[in-house]
Amino acid sequence: MTTFDSKYDMFPAGDVGIVEGEMNIPSRGVPSGENMEFNTLDEPIKETFMRDLRAVGNKFYHVLIPREKTSLLKEWDLWGPLLLCTLMATILQGSTERADNSNDGGPEFAEVFVLVWIGAAIVTANSKLLGGNISFFQSVCVLGYCLFPIALALVICRIILFTTQNSFLFFLRLVISMVGFIWATFAATKFLGDSQPEGKKGLAVYPICLFYFILSWLVVSHSNV
Question: Residue 72 and residue 57: Cα distance in Å, rounded?
Answer without folding.
Answer: 11
